[in-house]
Amino acid sequence: MGEGCHSVDLLRFLAVAPIVATHLQPMATPTRDIATLTLGFANGSTGTVHYSALGTKAIPKERLEVVSDGRVLQLDNFRTLRG
């Protein structure tokens, strides 16, 4: 989960508010490298990080979705942005 801290930093930056609540839900696997982290921010925003090694290389490894004011932005692998 070494890269997970970067996801938390990015969500904190995008929310423009301090983190006030956290919930970690690990998946029962031998490697313990699959989990969902939910963050609550002081301004009412919510961020979720799904960290999993179970995916396929056929789809982007990292995706960020930002939903706000009836709009959605999707960033794939920090290279392609759709909105």
Please provide a written account of the structure:
This protein is mainly beta. The strands form 2 sheets. A 3-stranded antiparallel sheet has the order 1-2-3, with helices on one face. It has a 3-stranded antiparallel sheet with strand order 4-5-6, with no helix packed on it. The chain has a single domain, classed as Dihydrodipicolinate Reductase, domain 2. The mean pLDDT is 90. It contains 1 helix and 6 strands.
Topology, pairings included?
Layout: H1 4-15, E1 19-26, E2 35-41, E3 46-51, E4 63-68, E5 71-76, E6 80-82
Antiparallel strand pairs: 1-2, 2-3, 4-5, 5-6
Name of the level-1 CATH class:
Alpha Beta
- Using the coordinates shown, work out and report the CATH topology: Dihydrodipicolinate Reductase, domain 2
Number of helices: 1
Please give the share of residues in helix: 10-25%
Q: Considering the protein shown, what is the CATH homologous superfamily?
A: Dihydrodipicolinate Reductase, domain 2
Order of helices and strands: HEEEEEE
How many structural domains in the coordinates? 1
Q: Profile the largest sheet.
A: 3 strands, antiparallel
State Rg: 14 Å
